[in-house]
Design brief:
140 residues, five-stranded antiparallel beta sheet, 5 strands, 32% helix, globular
């Protein structure tokens, strides 16, 4: 099922407001979050328009979490964060997706606490985004 009002289903301009598509995996679409206060932050959105992981079969859920783990490992290899935090809220965007937020002890961004949904502080040039995407892709 596709929801024509959903950024992850429609992509294009809706998703471009906050993300840049990196690739598609078995069950998901992977986006670089444009706000890069946390270097390498990505979103892993399920390909099906479901609002909760419990709407998936056990097999679909397991395959999706394999995709999430794959992206997490790629972020860890590419940027060596101290920790990757995971967020799946869905209060306003009713499409199953996880934010993978690399955390670094030596930066100024809320180490030891919940990451901000959008700090709205650090945006990059097209070339800088392309470099981060290339590092993630080479580690997928």
């Amino acid at each position: 099922m596709i929801d024509n009002n959903c950024a992850y289903c429609v992509e294009g301009e809706l998703v471009a407001k906050f993300g840049i598509k990196i690739c598609e995996l078995e069950t998901s679409k992977v986006y670089l979050f444009k706000e890069q206060s946390h270097k390498g932050r990505c979103i892993v959105a399920h390909k099906k328009h479901v609002g909760d992981m419990n709407e998936l079969t056990a097999e679909e859920r397991a395959a999706y979490f394999e995709d999430v783990a794959l992206v997490s490992r790629a972020i860890q290899k590419a940027f060596n964060p101290d920790k990757v935090n995971y967020g799946a809220y869905g209060d306003t965007g009713h499409h199953l997706h996880f934010h993978l937020c690399p955390k670094y002890k030596d930066d100024e961004f809320e180490w030891g606490g919940v990451f901000l949904m959008n700090p709205d502080r650090k945006y990059l040039s097209e070339d800088e985004y392309a470099q981060i995407i290339a590092k993630i892709k080479e580690n997928l």
